[in-house]
Each structure stands twice: as structure tokens, then as C-alpha cells.
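To: structure subgroup
Subject: Chain for Friday's discussion

All,

I'm putting the inputs and outputs inline so they're searchable in the archive.
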Amino acid sequence: MEKKVRVFTVLICLLLLTTGCRREQTAAGYKEVEKTGFLMGTLVTLKVFDRDADKSSRAADKAFARIREIESLMSLNIEDSQVNNINEWAGIRPVEVSHDTLKVVEKGIYYGQLSEGLFDITVGPLARLWRIGTENPQIPGSTRINNALGLVDYRDVEINQETKEIFLKRPGMVIDLGGIAKGYAADEAKKVLMAEGIEHAIINLGGNVLTVGPKHDGGPWNIGIKDPYNPNGSLLGFVRIQDKTVVTSGDYERYFEKDGKRYHHILNPYTGFPGNNEIKGVTLIAHSSFDADALSTTVFLLGVEKGMQLVESLDGIEAVAITRDRQVVISSGMGDAFSISNNNYKMR
């Protein structure tokens, strides 16, 4: 009988087309089910803890299906996605969209207003010029940047709530939801897991980390923050969270170098160039990954002083900012939830 059970478990894993599967026994009778897959342009990992491994596996599959659904609506890499349809008909006619796409675009406009345009979902024309994260990144000329800047303005996105239509006012405008859609997908995956009765899980969408409840042993989750100067090696420190999200933005995530200078993917909609201030990386802690995703970009572009002022003005939001001279600045409500583990850094 034991042999049959093992064979059945292996078959479940083999049947998953886009995900990997791993099961482990943990303390107190809980079993860990881990599944991974490449979605929304990044590696997605779900770790689900329950005494019933089959229940966890089914819940994780449903969460992956929900993420895949969101990707199909909002990815610029999927030809017939709703976002690509909106962009194709820019300046011509409005496009009817789903509740999901409408909600994400609305949130993007909200954060455009909150950030006074630093977070802008119409940054697509600039992103297409720079092509950072592709095999052929480039430094565009000033004329091309100025032309692209003329197409970047979240205020030129029109939403019709009654018809669920979105319209870009000018031809050539491009919505890019890469700075916010992953956060929405993480929150939606959490809703799916909770609806399936999962009380302990961790969701990781390429650095957007969201937890369900406490750890199965009752303690907080310890989420590592990468060392911005050695992101594939050491950690800078840890954040202890429960039922919250940790989202990081930094100049070390996607970039290219030319003539000794680094050009990263977080573009400033006012200058058309990658953001340039004293922040090397910033981590946001919040209840919603949807909000933290947009805020991490915003705070990175604002810089330490103005970025932290924004964080302090918002309820339930905390932040850890790392400067280029290896100093760490934390928001006032962080308390002992954050600790440095790397001697190369010190608190400011």
C-alpha cells in the first residue's frame, strides 16, 4: 500500500504541466507542498502547509490557475491580452475589459495620483525604448526619449465604469502593468488558498512575497532581504511578518551596464531615464501586495526623505530603504520586525 501511495504522489506531480511539485513532512503533523512555475515573466513558488497534502496540492493548483488567468489578461508578452488590445486601439476607440483588468488599471491611476505621476502605468513607450530586461537593451537618444515622454501620462487613461471600457486618448500610448499586476496576482492567489481552507502558506512571485497566516508552528515568517550589492549571495537582513507582504524594488533586479554605468529598469516618467537618487533598494511591508507593489516603485523613485514621508502618511505601511553608502533607514512603525544580519550595513 505504501508503494502505491508514493506512485500516486509522483503521478500528481508529473501531471502538472507548468509547475514543479515537492512534498515534505514537517513538525506537528503538517505536510509542506511546494509548487513552482514560470508565470508573469518570473518564477512563482507556492509553499502550502496543511495536514492533508492532497488538499494543499489542489489549493496550490487553483492558485496557479488564478495567476495564469491574470497573466493572460494583462501580460504584454501575450499577443491577445486585454492590455495589448487596449494599446492597439489607443487613440481610436475604447476597449471592453474584465473586472480584473479594470481593477488593476484603476489602482494604477490611483497610485499615479498619489505619487504625482512618479508611478505611471503609461510608461510603456519608455520601457519599449530602453528594452531593459531583454537581450538587446539600449540607451535611447534624447529625441526619442522626448517623443516617448509626450505619450506618458496616466491622466490620459479614461475608464467607463458602466461599460467596463478603457480608452487611451492618444495613438502610441502604451499601458504597462508590470509594476502592479504581480501584486494583484499575489493577493488573488492568497484569496484562493484561503477559500480552500489553507491557513499557512507563503507565496513568492519573483520577489513579491505574501504570507497566509503565521507559520504552521505559530511563529512569524522570516523573510530575507537581499544584499543589494550581492543579490545572488548574502542577505542584508530579515523581516518578520504574519499575514502580510514584503515587496522589494532595486537597481540590481534588471539592468545593463555600459561604459561602467548601470542602467536599471525603474524608469522615471519625468526624465525618461532610470531613477537616480541615494536609494539602492527599498522593501515595503503591507497587508496587500497590490499596494506594496506600486509603493515600492514610488518610494524608490522618490528617494529616502520623500519616500519615507509618504510611507509615514499611510496606514499599515512600513518600509526598509537601503542607501548607496550601505545605510539602512526604516519607518517608525517597523519596531523589532526588522533586523540586520550583515555587518557591511548599519542603521542610519
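Points worth raising on Friday:
Residues 1-18 have pLDDT under 50 and may be disordered.
The two ends are 60 Å apart (CA to CA).

D.
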